Amino acid sequence: MRNFEQVLKLEPGRTARGVTSLVVTGPLTDICVLASAVGAFNREYRITVAEDAVATRWPEIQRATLDIIGRAYGRVVSSKDIASEVTAW
Known about the structure:
Blueprint: H1 4-7, H2 11-17, E1 21-27, H3 29-42, E2 46-55, H4 59-72, E3 74-77, H5 79-88
Parallel strand pairs: 1-2, 2-3
Helix pairs in contact: 3-4
């Protein structure tokens, strides 16, 4: 899916299940991932971005975008940490 707006098609199922958190991954951290994180945050989801499961062409843009997401919208952690958390549930 390109961004969070496309994920909204799944909204009724998530609402019925009480889902409040989303893990965001994908290409183009500075475009798709950022748009998805902002969109989900604006709908009051708790956001986690898997820092090693996102990418962009420019390392400085990657660092800056992950910094913005971490400061304003949610957590930025490794996919290993996310897997450990999910396993603990």
